């Protein structure tokens, strides 16, 4: 009996525990704290992505396109890195130095950006051409074997996303997808092309053949930089493009002279080929074949980045005068040459490439100087006390050389703007700094 009462009591206690008291009959809900901002970003990230896409799309839809910019704005922007200083108080008629230009808009805006190959682009002329093409917004691939080219000529472009440098010899084929090819690769000074004459003629013939093949394969426009040396020791003065020349085919200089003549023949044969338009593979919007050839015959050129001791008369005179050495004149000094500043040549090459005429075109300054007159200009510019030393003349040295540029004036709207007395001080400044720094590097 006592056990039953105890069990009953325990059961009653458990029931009392299970029944809530009146004080526990109401319990308010706990207030939820607001979710943190990181939590919201995490949970709603897809919504934010969608909103961002919509905002970006609206921006590009309503943003005025570049093609609607005022054309006069573009025409006022210089497209060449070589321009005259308009400030007369500067005391010199120079050109902008290499490097970038703050606030400058590339000229490629509003037109298709081109992919361009420049063979020999690490050389004297080639590096200046590369600067111009980069400054207008194109993509440039330089091909050079550095036989005469110098990396210092291009070091200011390293890191530029539109610049690429390939160490390669054009005697060997190369495959690239490009729109234009400027073929400059070849030793251009007597010291260099006489050093290895077989290599020189191989570069002129095989190198040109390979680059022409590449141009035809990908439908690229091709420009050959030939030379006034194709006229040899001319019997016509001044020389027109129609003059066939007077060249010694077996002389010491013939590896260069005849090599360039052969390169011109190859270029014209490729251009005249009956199957060119059928096999070029790429045509312009009007259905015409994009693949075409251009030929430039370059006369004596001078300017910054020339090799200090390449045997050419301007660089020889300038380097010797700066070093306080006698200026070397070969023969009687009455031979004549015409000298153009490098920026004028670069402008001519670009005008020829962009034009509609094959050529050949003479690109040179018709101002004519004897070697003695040139020596006097160098003395006036550098050192009035400089002396002249006469030596026997070299073999096959032309007596006269002066371009007739009537064709370039008429069809390319091109003519040189920089006189010898304007351009020479700029070259002297470059040579003086390199000589003082002990830079005896080579350049094309």
Automatic annotation (TrEMBL):
It is a single-pass type II membrane protein. GO terms for biological process: D-xylose metabolic process. Its EC number is 4.1.1.35. Pfam families: GDP_Man_Dehyd (PF16363). It comes from the Eukaryota. GO terms for molecular function: NAD+ binding; UDP-glucuronate decarboxylase activity. Residues 118-425 form the NAD(P)-binding domain. It is found in: Golgi apparatus, Golgi stack membrane. Keywords: Decarboxylase, Golgi apparatus, Lyase, Membrane, NAD, Transmembrane, Transmembrane helix. Catalyzes the NAD-dependent decarboxylation of UDP-glucuronic acid to UDP-xylose. Necessary for the biosynthesis of the core tetrasaccharide in glycosaminoglycan biosynthesis. This is UDP-glucuronate decarboxylase. It comes from Populus tomentosa.
């Amino acid at each position: 009996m006592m056990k039953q009462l105890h069990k009953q009591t325990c059961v009653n206690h458990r029931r009392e525990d299970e029944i809530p008291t009146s004080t526990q009959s109401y319990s308010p809900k706990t207030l939820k704290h607001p979710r943190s901002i990181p939590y919201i970003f995490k949970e709603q990230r897809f919504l934010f992505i969608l909103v961002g896409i919509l905002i970006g799309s609206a921006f590009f839809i309503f943003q005025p396109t570049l093609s609607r910019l005022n054309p006069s704005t573009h025409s006022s922007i210089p497209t060449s890195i070589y321009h005259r200083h308009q400030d007369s108080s500067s005391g010199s008629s120079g050109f902008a130095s290499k490097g970038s230009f703050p606030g400058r808009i590339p000229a490629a805006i509003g037109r298709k950006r081109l992919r361009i190959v420049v063979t020999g682009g690490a050389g004297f002329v080639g590096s200046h051409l590369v600067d111009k093409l980069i400054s207008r917004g194109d993509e440039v691939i330089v091909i050079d074997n550095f036989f005469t080219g110098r990396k210092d000529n291009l070091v200011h472009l390293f890191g530029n996303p539109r610049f690429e440098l390939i160490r390669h010899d054009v005697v060997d084929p190369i495959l690239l997808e490009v729109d234009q090819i400027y073929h400059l690769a070849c030793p251009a000074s007597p010291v260099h092309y006489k050093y290895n004459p077989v290599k020189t003629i191989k570069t002129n013939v095989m190198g040109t053949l390979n680059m022409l093949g590449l141009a035809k394969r990908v439908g690229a426009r091709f420009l050959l930089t030939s030379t006034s040396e194709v006229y040899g020791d001319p019997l016509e003065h001044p020389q027109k493009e129609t003059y066939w020349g007077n060249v010694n085919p077996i002389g010491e200089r013939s590896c260069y002279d005849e090599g360039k003549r052969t390169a011109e023949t190859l270029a014209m044969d490729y251009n005249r080929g009956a199957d060119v338009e059928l096999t070029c593979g790429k045509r312009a919007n009007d259905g015409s074949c994009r693949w075409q050839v251009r030929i430039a015959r370059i006369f004596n050129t001078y300017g910054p980045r020339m090799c200090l001791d390449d045997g050419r008369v301007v660089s020889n005179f300038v380097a010797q005068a700066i070093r306080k050495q006698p200026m070397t004149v070969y023969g009687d000094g009455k031979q004549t040459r015409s000298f153009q500043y490098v920026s004028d040549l670069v402008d001519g090459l670009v005008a020829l490439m962009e034009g509609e005429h094959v050529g050949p075109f003479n690109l040179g300054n018709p101002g004519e100087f004897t070697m003695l007159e040139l020596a006097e200009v160098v003395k006036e510019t550098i050192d009035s006390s400089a002396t002249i030393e006469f030596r026997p003349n070299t073999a096959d040295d032309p007596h006269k050389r002066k371009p007739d540029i009537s064709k370039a004036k008429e069809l390319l709207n091109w003519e040189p703007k920089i006189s010898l007395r304007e351009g020479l001080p700029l070259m002297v400044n470059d040579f003086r700094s390199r000589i003082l720094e002990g830079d005896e590097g080579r350049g094309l």
